[in-house]
Amino acid sequence: MDAAVDAGTSQFELNEDQRAIQQMAEAFAADRVAPNALDWDRNKHFPADVIRETGPLGLGGIYVSDDVGGSALGRLDAVLIFEALSLADPAFSSFISIHNMVASMIDRFGSDEQRQHFLPKLTSMEWLASYCLTEPGSGSDAAALKTRAVRSGGDYVLNGVKQFISGAGDSDLYIVMARTGADGPKGISTFVVPKDAPGLSFGANEHKMGWHMQSTRQVVFEDCKVPAQNLLADEGAGFGIAMAGLDGGRLNIAACSLGGAQSALDKALSYTAERKAFGAKINQFQALQFKLADMETELQAARIFLYAAASKLDRKAPDASKWSAMAKRFVTDIGFNVANDALQLHGGYGYLHDYGIEKLVRDLRVHQILEGTNEIMRVIIARALIGR
Ligand SMILES: Cc1cc2nc3c(=O)[nH]c(=O)nc-3n(C[C@H](O)[C@H](O)[C@H](O)COP(=O)(O)OP(=O)(O)OC[C@H]3O[C@@H](n4cnc5c(N)ncnc54)[C@H](O)[C@@H]3O)c2cc1C
Asked: pTM of the full predicted structure?
């Protein structure tokens, strides 16, 4: 365990189990992810095999109940895992987060039959899962989504397009928010759609700034037939289900920023201790020492804040959603800034792929945009403060 992470976690007096979980995730990431992360990024390779290796470690259903193969851990445990995986590769860790978000939605809102059917294969990572909310015409304003699901006998027939779906084309299962009723959030329902559903297809892999190891594609529904038993909970419950998934997802993505930024700071500390300019190691310049001091301070503040927000969700505190939004906004902003400062401390070498810093900056940038943009986090926080 890195000294900086250790110091941060000690504020929360993690118990033995939590330390063991953290160390297990960190060891796996160091062994199976870190040596490959730059290659996966360069070659835009989706490492389904290595992702599946996390199933037997209990990472396919971190906070899913144990009767369906889940690990039944808490949100703070999950944050520790995503932070540890992200020390090696935030893009890898983020995909595992999305998969877990889907599994937990089925666990929480699915019938017993649905849970028994889908979850053992998700928790073992035999099946990988994606989350489909965003559409070409609705991102932040997710309740304006237009994908429609119409009941037809024993099926629902889906028509519409989902945009920016992580893992699309590679995942085996898609949780899809679609409109079954009137405009607005109350007309939305949630469906579990298998990859081989008739009428389901995928767009081209988007060329994007970061997160290169996972695909981002449109998911297209053209008279796509889904058995009625794949409706999750009741018609009209879908927006609440989607938002419930995001509360935990936001903490996870913040943890991915934290781990990535910690890795960037560690690299900057090593580099500035070696690199010489004007006859001295560059970490002897007080301007750079102050920069490192600020990076450490801000990262530790972010860590403590994130753990506090995760503890709120674990305790089902009434203000847990506000804290999830605050943590997502704060930690992903700090994480990006720390990674960007680490790049600057590397000079021109920070801009080269082989040093692994520019990848972290590219990967962490999108965390300020997805799972609700950081502006939308401010909307949620302000609503909680002053009402609508
Ligand atoms: C790489 C990547 C992966 C993604 N993966 C997924 C996925 O797996 N599943 C999924 O469903 N989605 C996914 N997304 C979509 C992501 O969640 C959306 O891009 C995001 O929610 C923003 O929506 P938008 O892009 O339509 O931007 P818009 O909603 O059009 O926003 C544009 C700008 O306006 C601002 N804005 C909008 N409304 C307000 C307001 N009320 N007040 C202040 N500012 C506002 C936004 O913050 C933003 O700066 C992914 C996106 C990317 C880039």
From this structure: 0.96
147 lines ligand 1 (CB under 6 A): no
How far is CA 146 from its chain centroid?
25
297: its two tokens: 């301070």
Mean pLDDT of 287-293: 98
* 126 a catalytic residue: no
| Closest Cα to atom 16 of ligand 1 | 370
**How would you label 337-364 residue by residue, b for 16+ Cβ within 10 Å and e otherwise?**
bbbbbbbebbeeebeeeebbbbbbbbbb
CB 129 within 8 Å of CB 121: no
Determine the distance from the C-alpha atom of residue 71 to the mean position of all C-alpha atoms in its chain, rounded to a whole number: 18
Residue with tokens 């053992």: 120
**Six-digit token string for 27:** 């060891």
- Tens-place pLDDT, residues 61-105: 999 999 999 999 999 999 999 999 999 999 999 999 999 999 999
Centre of ligand 1 to C-alpha 42, Å, is 25
3-state class of 135 per DSSP? strand
- What secondary structure does DSSP assign to 246-311, as a single string? HHHHHHHHHHHHHHHHHHHHHHHHHHHHH-EETTEEGGGSHHHHHHHHHHHHHHHHHHHHHHHHHH
Q: Tokens at residue 378, please?
A: 């401010």
CA distance 365 to 208: 11
Q: Which residue has the tokens 């594609």?
A: 217
Question: For the CA atoms of 141, 142, 143, 147, what is the dihedral angle to 10 degrees?
Answer: 130
Strands 148-152 and 231-232, how do they pair? unpaired
Ligand 1 near 375 CB (within 6 A): yes
* CA 243 / ligand 1 centre spacing (Å): 14
Q: Cite the DSSP H helix spans in 53-128.
A: 75-86, 90-109, 112-123
Q: Nearest-CA neighbor of 99 among 119, 73, 75, 79?
A: 119
Q: Cα separation of 10 and 18, whole Å?
A: 11
The candidate with the shortest Cα–Cα distance to 34, out of 92, 96, 88, is 88
Q: Pairing relation of β-strands 216-227 and 173-179?
A: unpaired
φ, ψ at 280 (rounded to 5°): -140, 160
307 lines ligand 1 (CB under 6 A): no
**Position 269, amino acid:** L
Q: How would residue 14 be classed by pLDDT, with cut points 50, 70 and 90?
A: confident
Ligand 1 atom closest to residue 208's alpha carbon, by position in its atom list: 1
